[in-house]
């Protein structure tokens, strides 16, 4: 079966009886597999996932599930079509042999491929102190099991919940706690919630929302340690300002780490910042040379985007996983002239404190921000981010109808500040202000878009060739 | 049945919440919350919601259990979403 390449007739052979392996059986992996079958791939398809469950949807885990409107083990993703795959669930991929085109599995099996799609996503960053992180009552939230455990702990009526990190997930958890009538403290290292994702101006709006809903929000502080009681249950947290918060549930919400360790030493351009790929989702090897048989999609990928100066973007966005999976699957089964670039305009939503927050574009690239529609005071507005005289992103709070318009503005590199005068009369006036993003070299909790430079193979990473 | 709503595409028009209130609910002014695995009895309502969503944001998969439940000859089965699930 080796020799299935891009020569005459080879693509037809690949489609007829080639072998495609997908590592990571979640949103991106499933949607890619469906697209492959839709495109007429009739060969063997192998899905490898280390979670023991069929693909499920994660966004409800911090929303519906914590609010009790849905159950954690009933969020399986609907299928667009049957994919007729050979599933290996509950089994991690542990290694990749690029020369032999082989994936090694944790149970000792090996699977050969003609095309490989890597969609191993990210995992929750654990609490840095392992012993403290293992205390009963300490949670992270990434998986179905995490959500089930956390929901059970919330249902038991804790006296106080402490959420560490006020990114989107942390804020959604705090919001759900308040809705359940639970006391909650949020500790955030940055100046406000969501600063890493949306900047300080919007962060201030988010902070008001927390406080108005009765969250005990502490910003500019770090949690320095967790303290357990005699039964191994968490009892309190110590903060860098010297204060102590007594809590019997602690949710660590410090962002994500990319699942790339299994590729160490394989020669693929994979590291802590993800797997670099070209605009067509083909992975780079460690030398910065693009592979032709290994593709990446979803949260684990970092890919250059033409609309954003070919910056490499890592997007922890649901919509990106779906769109990139579709493009990767298409390109895996296409001649090079028929391949498509992944040109999806980043888009994200979050639901917290009863407010629908949505964004398009890349807010962290923005240096300035201007409220363009609605009212900041009423927390119903659209705001636009500018970068070097053009519109680079927009965010809405309960004003999502404007987003499509701004998406077009971003795609057409429309000027900033916008020349149109559709703005309502607002006291804050019509002048852009600094968007106030924290220094990018200081990591914040879960920015969800990471700009990761131009170099496909991060030169700071060490690579030990297998055969030297 | 299993469902997922592409909330990037959803415009919060609330047609789904009107047609299948046991499955879809507005939370605040424009946030939509839904049950990703609704009961078979909800089939007809959910199929109406899928058909009525003006932006085709709801992807629905009927399972065997749903098929065994009452037939809904007038409803549009399957997905309102375009392949790829993007805009
Ligand atoms: C609580 C929560 C709320 C969210 N809310 C939103 C939201 O409101 N809006 C939004 O746009 N996005 C949201 N997201 C993000 C969204 O869910 C992700 O962008 C999406 O899941 C990415 O899909 P993926 O398939 O790329 O990666 P993942 O879903 O992370 O899947 C990767 C899979 O690969 C598996 N895996 C890892 N390593 C291996 C290995 N070596 N071998 C085999 N399998 C492996 C993992 O266990 C996992 O199952 C949320 C995420 C979470 C956790
Ligand atoms: S009908 Fe469609 S657009 Fe309207 S709220 Fe429901 S899913 Fe969203």
UniProtKB/TrEMBL annotation, chain A:
Domain Reductase C-terminal: 348-417
Annotated keywords: FAD, Flavoprotein, Oxidoreductase
GO function terms (MF aspect): oxidoreductase activity, acting on NAD(P)H
Chain intervals for the UniProt region annotation (Disordered): 416-468
UniProt cofactor(s): FAD
GO cellular component, one term: cytoplasm
Pfam families: Pyr_redox_2, Reductase_C
InterPro entries in the record: FAD-oxidoreductase/Apoptosis, FAD/NAD-bd_sf, FAD/NAD-binding_dom, FAD/NAD-linked_Rdtase_dimer_sf, Reductase_C
Domain of life of the source: Bacteria
Residue ranges occupied by any FAD/NAD(P)-binding domain in the UniProt entry: 19-325
Protein name: Ferredoxin reductase
UniProtKB/TrEMBL annotation, chain B:
UniProt keyword list: 3Fe-4S, Electron transport, Iron, Iron-sulfur, Metal-binding, Transport
Cited SUPFAM superfamilies: 4Fe-4S ferredoxins
Keyword Transport appears in the UniProt entry: yes
Gene3D superfamilies: 3.30.70.20
Signal peptide: none
Domain of life: Bacteria
Listed GO MF terms: 3 iron, 4 sulfur cluster binding; electron transfer activity; iron ion binding
Cited Pfam families: Fer4_13
Cofactor needs: [3Fe-4S] cluster
Function: Ferredoxins are iron-sulfur proteins that transfer electrons in a wide variety of metabolic reactions.
Name under which the protein is recorded: Ferredoxin
Record organism: Streptomyces subrutilus
Taxonomy of the source species: Bacteria, Bacillati, Actinomycetota, Actinomycetes, Kitasatosporales
């Amino acid at each position: 079966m080796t020799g299935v390449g891009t020569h005459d007739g080879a693509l037809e052979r690949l489609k007829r009886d080639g072998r495609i392996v997908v590592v990571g059986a979640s949103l991106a992996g499933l949607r890619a597999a469906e697209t492959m079958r839709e495109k007429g791939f009739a060969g063997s398809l192998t899905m490898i996932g280390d979670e023991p469950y069929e693909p499920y949807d994660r966004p409800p885990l911090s929303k519906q599930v914590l609010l009790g409107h849905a159950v954690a083990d009933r969020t399986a993703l609907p299928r667009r079509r049957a994919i007729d795959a050979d599933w290996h669930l509950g089994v991690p991929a542990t290694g990749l042999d690029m020369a032999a085109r082989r994936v090694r599995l944790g149970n000792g099996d090996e699977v050969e491929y003609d095309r490989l799609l890597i969609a191993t996503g990210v995992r929750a960053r654990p609490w840095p102190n392992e012993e403290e992180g293992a205390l009963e009552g300490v949670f992270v939230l990434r998986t179905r099991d995490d959500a089930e455990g956390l929901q059970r702990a919330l249902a038991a009526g804790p006296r106080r919940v402490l959420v560490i990190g006020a990114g989107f997930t942390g804020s959604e958890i705090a919001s759900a706690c308040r809705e359940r009538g639970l006391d909650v403290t949020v500790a955030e290292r940055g100046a406000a919630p969501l600063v890493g994702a949306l900047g300080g101006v919007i962060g201030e709006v988010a902070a008001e929302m927390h406080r108005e809903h009765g969250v005990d929000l502490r910003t500019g502080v770090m949690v320095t340690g967790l303290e357990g009681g005699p039964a191994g249950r968490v009892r309190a947290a110590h903060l860098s300002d010297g204060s102590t918060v007594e809590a019997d549930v602690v949710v660590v919400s410090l962002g994500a780490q990319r699942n790339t360790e299994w590729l160490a030493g394989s020669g693929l351009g994979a590291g802590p910042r993800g797997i670099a790929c070209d605009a067509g989702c083909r992975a780079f090897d460690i030398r910065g040379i693009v592979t032709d048989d290994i593709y990446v999609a979803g949260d684990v990928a970092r890919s250059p985007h033409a609309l954003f100066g070919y910056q490499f973007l890592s997007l922890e966005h649901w919509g990106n996983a779906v769109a990139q999976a579709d493009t990767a699957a298409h390109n895996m089964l296409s001649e090079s002239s028929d391949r498509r670039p992944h040109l999806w305009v980043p888009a994200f939503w979050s639901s917290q404190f009863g407010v629908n927050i949505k964004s398009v574009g890349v807010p962290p690239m923005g240096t300035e921000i201007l409220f363009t529609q609605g009212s900041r005071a009423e927390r119903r507005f659209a705001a636009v981010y500018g970068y070097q005289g053009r519109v680079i992103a927009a965010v809405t709070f309960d004003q999502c109808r404007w987003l499509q318009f701004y998406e077009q503005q971003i795609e057409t590199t429309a000027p900033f500040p916008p020349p149109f005068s559709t703005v309502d009369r607002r006291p804050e006036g019509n002048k852009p202000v600094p968007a106030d993003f924290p220094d990018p070299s200081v990591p914040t909790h879960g920015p969800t878009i990471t700009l990761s430079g131009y170099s496909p193979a991060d030169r700071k990473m060490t690579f030990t060739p297998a055969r030297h | 049945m299993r469902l997922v709503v592409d909330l990037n595409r959803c415009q919060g028009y609330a047609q789904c919440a009107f047609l299948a209130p046991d499955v879809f609910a507005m939370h605040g002014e424009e946030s939509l919350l839904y049950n990703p695995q609704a009961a078979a009895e909800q089939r007809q309502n959910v199929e109406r919601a899928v058909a009525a969503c003006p932006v085709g944001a709801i992807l629905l998969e009927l399972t065997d259990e749903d098929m065994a439940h009452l037939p809904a000859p007038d409803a549009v089965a399957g997905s309102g979403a375009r392949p790829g699930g993007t805009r």
